[in-house]
TrEMBL record:
PROSITE patterns recorded: 4FE4S_FER_2 (PS51379)
Name under which the protein is recorded: (4Fe-4S)-binding protein
Pfam assignment, any one: Fer4
UniProt cross-references to SUPFAM superfamilies, sorted A to Z: P-loop containing nucleoside triphosphate hydrolases (SSF52540)
Gene3D superfamilies: 3.30.70.20, P-loop containing nucleotide triphosphate hydrolases
UniProt xrefs under PANTHER family: 4FE-4S CLUSTER CONTAINING PARA FAMILY ATPASE PROTEIN (PTHR43063)
Residues annotated as domain 4Fe-4S ferredoxin-type: 58-88
InterPro entries according to UniProt: 4Fe4S_Fe-S-bd (IPR017896), CobQ/CobB/MinD/ParA_Nub-bd_dom (IPR002586), P-loop_NTPase (IPR027417)
Species classification: Bacteria, Pseudomonadati, Pseudomonadota, Alphaproteobacteria, Hyphomicrobiales
Amino acid sequence: MRIAIASGKGGTGKTSVAVNLAATAGRSVTLVDCDVEEPNAHIFLKGDVVATETVSMRVPAIDESRCTGCRACVEFCASNALISFGGPPLFFADLCHGCGGCRLVCRARAISEIARPLGEVRRIDAAQCTLVEGRLEVGVSSPVPVIKAAKAAAKGDFVIYDAPPGTSCPLVATVRGADYVLLVTEPTPFGLSDLRLTVEVLRQMGMDFGVVINRTVRSESLIHDYCHHEAIDILGEIPDDRRIAEAYAAGRLIVEALPGYRPLFRSILEACLERVTA
């Protein structure tokens, strides 16, 4: 069973919901922090790093002494990672997708492959659950390979993905393959705007999803009206409680610092499971 926790914008409380759902589920769950550019689930799910795996990609290394300047590799590269001005090509690592095609089309055999480090995946044995964390190497532009590696490292029958914010490739890479997506939003015009964008992406992908409203207030109707109009289930509402903010700032889980909220997160988790198994 795979559940992804996502949001259209940063700061809505997505990670807070993810870690508290994982803590509520207990040792049977694995939480994967797919926000590899800024992983922070480890702040709340503290534990020892028990395994580390380097994530790398094969990229071309050009032997200029053998290169004839034929441009076959340049013409083959659809991502424009190779450019030639009459001599050996220049290589732009950030544009390379690691397909290896340039090496295959080089008749002079001037291209070999080397491993380019992209990041790492850590397995952390936390008290509440198992945490798998992806970390992108500084200077690497695309987080997608590290996200895929982190997801592949998750073991067990119940996995929660903590997705990166936004609606671009990192989000798509995270939610793809999930059985259900839980969207965390806030009752503000900005929250509604980004929620709409995320809903559009998930519908194009054919994903099942529901909404949790964070920092909700009694007079809030913005998100309710939108979800009612779009026939989107609201699985829970987390109130705008200063005590929650204080617990978050201290790096504490809500369900441990404020046990009265544990039934709320339990009901959200059960609502997700009901929709997955329906």
